[in-house]
Amino acid sequence: MTEDEGSGPAGGLAAWTTRRWLRVGVTASLVLLALLGATGAWVLERTASLSRNLVDVKSPALSTSFRLEAALLDQETGIRGYGVTGAPEFLGPYRQGLTDQTAFTAQLTGLLRDDAPRLEDLERVRDAVRTWQERIAVPIAAAPAGAPSPLTAERAAEGKAAFDEVRAALSGQQEHLLADRTGARDDLNAMMGLRNGVFSAIAVLIAVLAGLVFEGLRRGITEPLQQLGADARAVARGDFAHPITPTGPADLRQLSGEIDSMRRRLVRELDFSEQARLRLDAQAADLQRSNAELEQFAYVASHDLQEPLRKVSSFTQLLQRRYGGRLDSKADQYIDFAVDGANRMQVLINDLLAFSRVGRVHHTHQEVDLGSVLEQTLSALSIGIEESGAVITHDPLPTLVADPTQMGMLWQNLIGNAVKFRRPDRAPEIHVSAVREDALWRFIVTDNGIGIAPEYTEKVFVIFQRLHTKDAYEGSGIGLAMCKKIVEFHGGSIHVDQEYRAGARITFTLAPEAPAAAP
């Protein structure tokens, strides 16, 4: 069973699809139109046949009968005049009447060839004319001219009676032909009335059929599609609780059901997504609050530790100056340990304080010439650069909307690391470049130092993560973590180029304008 055949009689009309409705409707319409066309064609043909019979047969037959009568009257008049006077000029109408009689008789025979009763009427006229001509007309016409014919007087009564028979035969023929013409006209008028009625009925039926077709299309296709479209637009506007109402033929109802099923599944997925979003929002709020608390804690802790640490550092340095060399070697070593630990703690607290201030204290966005900021940073690091013999170059750097203090801290940590982590057998060579990539600027800091192993390219950006001991390279392990925080605060990203092996290559991106989330 095909899809458009529905589910059979058990399904009823409700199981009919749009295709089946259209097929049945078109077939019924074509059958009805064919019947109407055949009826109209028959009516037209019948009307034309009756019209041809009236115009080509009945009316010409009647008029020809009258002309035949006139031709016979001309013969009778000519014979009577010739018989009384013997003047030959009277034979002219007689002879012309004979010619016309032959022509009109032949014409009537042709017109009435399919009408046996009228042919019998014509035969009676012929017989009467033949009797009159044989007994009266032909003998008188054969008499010599110049004197009256004696037969005229002798056969006057017989001639009158014979011609009266002719007149009677003609009269009967004409009455029948007139009746036939009247009947044909009545039949034609009746058929024309029937024709008009049939075509009026055809017009009404076509109008009704067109109305039924349009109404069927409206109820079966247009309105269901409009309803489906309205429901779909309501869902598209965000009213996901709006149900899709199934209407129309079976296939449109099936389509509506499938769309409604998709709507319900979408509602379930949206509910799940909304719950997930709410959970993520709650987690993000908790994380943001936790980060804020951690930053506040780091700031407070580092700030509040400054004073006691300064006392510890001051007194240990005082002990070192006053009692250095006076005690035994163990005491001097312990004092050195205490002074070194206090100094390193001071550096660590200062770095932690600077890290906590990123995005919280320094957040003044303005146009910053990164080339000028880099020059200022190089000036601040000039002692270390001169001691290491570092060669630092850079391409033209753009002007961005950023926090100038944070940009200085960024350059200071990146250049400082490149100088610090140098190879012992060669002077540092550091190059800074910048290229535009779509909506961002990409900066590349390349050096020829000891480099970063691929397995540590992510670890180096974690706070307090050190790859070397404090004896090999000094520092707190906060520098690159601070660089990452500054770059992300300005809407960019930073990472280590793992493909570069001749040293270290740090790449990061910055937006030309301050990100929307920036204060």
Layout of secondary structure:
Layout: H1 18-85, H2 91-111, H3 116-142, H4 150-154, H5 156-236, H6 250-323, H7 329-357, E1 366-369, H8 370-380, H9 382-388, E2 391-394, E3 399-402, H10 404-420, E4 429-437, E5 440-447, H11 479-489, E6 494-496, E7 505-510
Parallel strand pairs: 2-4
Antiparallel strand pairs: 1-3, 4-5, 5-7, 6-7
Helix pairs in contact: 1-2, 1-3, 1-5, 2-3, 3-5, 5-6, 6-7, 8-10, 10-11
Walkthrough of the structure:
The protein has 11 helices and 7 strands. The chain has 519 residues and is of the alpha+beta class. The longest helix has 81 residues, at 156-236. It is rod-shaped and about 205 Å long. The model is unreliable at 1-10 (pLDDT under 50).
- How helical, in percent, are the residues? 55-70%
Low-confidence stretches are: 1-10
Q: How many beta-strand runs? A: 7
Q: Topology as H/E string?
A: HHHHHHHEHHEEHEEHEE
SSE-based structural type: alpha+beta
* Overall pLDDT level: 82
Biggest pleated-sheet summary: 5 strands, mixed
Total of helices: 11
Strand % is 5-15%
CA-to-CA gap between the ends? 69 Å
Shape: rod-shaped
The Cα radius of gyration reads: 64 Å
Strand order, sheet with most strands: 2-4-5-7-6
